[in-house]
Amino acid sequence: MYASVPDANPLMNNKQGDNIWNGDAFEMAFSTDPELSQRRIRFRTSDQHIAFRISNDPVVWDFVKHKAITDGKVSVVKTVTGYNLEASIPFRYLESDHFNNGKIYGIEFAIDNGDESGSRTIQLRWNNPDVDGFYNNPSLWGELVFEKYEQASIPLR
After folding, report:
1. Alpha carbon distance 111, 109 (integer Å)
2. What whole-number distance in Å separates Cα of residue 8 and Cα of residue 20?
3. Is 14 within the bounds of a domain?
4. Please, which residues have CB within 8 angstroms of residue 100's CB and are 6 or more apart in sequence?
5. CA distance 154 to 157
6. Model confidence over 69-115: pLDDT tens digits?
7. Which pTM was predicted?
8. Counting Cβ atoms within 10 Å, is residue 86 exposed (0-12), middle (13-18) or buried (19+)?
């Protein structure tokens, strides 16, 4: 995953563990089971809530299991206008080896923006920007469909 985020006070997060949402962070909530209803209002065991702490010491955090994802990778680079985030987690961590083509999965993204004190002042959400609670209510998520991409070949002359 890659994100370029505008931020007047980038890399402001000194929080630990389940509190990393309360500063600069990037959160994702998603399902790994396409058969679940998109209208459900409770998390299921296949739902995930993962965050990346945006700081000089970035961390990948699993809110469901309440622990760091130590084999996740995260790189944060401060820019003139904010920061760039590049991050990944292995499929094996999700207890899945793939997502199915053509199936619909629920997903939500949130950017947590901290101030000089390191505490969150605003959260920007992708699907329901005016409704809080995406972290425990999947009915607020959007939809993601994976499609197989096959590169067309062009004959060389």
Report:
1. 7
2. 19
3. yes
4. 34, 146
5. 9
6. 999 999 999 999 999 999 999 888 887 767 888 999 999 999 999 98
7. 0.89
8. middle
